[in-house]
Fold this sequence. Notes:
The chain is an alpha+beta fold. The protein has helices spanning 2-17, 21-32, 37-43, 50-89, 108-122, 136-139, 177-194, 243-257, 305-310, 327-335, 348-351; strands at 126-127, 133-135, 159-160, 169-171, 208-217, 228-238, 263-272, 275-285, 295-303, 319-325.
Amino acid sequence: MTELNAIVESAQSAFAQAATPADLENAKAQYLGKAGKITELMKGMAALSVDEKKARGAAINVAKQAIEAALTARRQALADAELDAQLKAEALDVTLPGRQRGQGGLHPVSLTLERIEAIFGSMGFDVAQGPEIESDWFNFTALNTPEDHPARSMHDTFYVEGGSETAPNLLRTHTSPMQIRYAVQHVKQHRASVGATDGLYAGDMPEIRVIAPGRTYRVDSDATHSPMFHQCEGLWVGENVSFKDLKFVFTDFCRTFFESDDLVLRFRPSFFPFTEPSAEIDIQFQSGPLAGRWLEVAGSGQVHPNVIRNMGLDPEKFIGFAFGMGPDRLTMLRYGVNDLRLFFDGDVRFLSQFN
Ligand code: PHE
């Protein structure tokens, strides 16, 4: 029987040395295959007597079972090892940060508009929105802009379908039409509440104090001009509102907006059909990267009597000022951006820096 034991032991060690399932199947063939050692022993029993066959057969069977058991165990061990290796290769590092959806954030110009609204809101200004497709009346005529004013020409203004030859529709070239729209509404409501009759209104009335931010359009395109840009209108009309108030309000606004008291303001004489006198508002920082240069930030002026009339008010009683500023330019100054087009290219790498 030592012969059988030796065969079992050599099978066990051959199986143990098999490093892969294929090696193992080859090793198995040497013992249990058609020409395997166990099979040969079985064949060799043919010449034995019945009793000898019984004893020999039983012993060979024991050895065969031992070899099969070793084979099964080794198969299982190799399968386990393969599974382990596979799991290791496919391992997930659960400590890695997850892949997130982008957080998103406000556009830098939207951030500026929010700031403007908050600052003027704190000074008692209402915030009004108006249509971007305007009539010729609100955009020009009601604002005392003569028929032959160059701003009406095809070079500056995008005209759109839907109007008439004499009253065309257009993309508003500024937010100033909101002066008329808001004031007319304000006066109408007040008149109704006090039961005032027709004609220019000359009674008591709460002051008009409003800003109107929004998109505006002109046929213009370079590093500092975009066919679509933003403006924010301001209007303050009452019985006793002067340039002094405009200077105070605008200085306060700029200092708050730029978070710097180190900033001065100057009015530079200018012309707008709807204000008289008119002035450009320039600011100058006394320190920091922009120090020493006069920077134009808004057009302004005392509201023209004809415009006061078009609001439904008596210019003998009511007076006020208006301004129109460029939130895009304010955004460029605040963040030190020198090409306006970057704001409207939609490049997330640029835009995500502001949040
Ligand atoms: N609407 C003028 C512009 O677009 C700016 C302005 C507004 C000037 C209000 C005076 C008063 O240039």
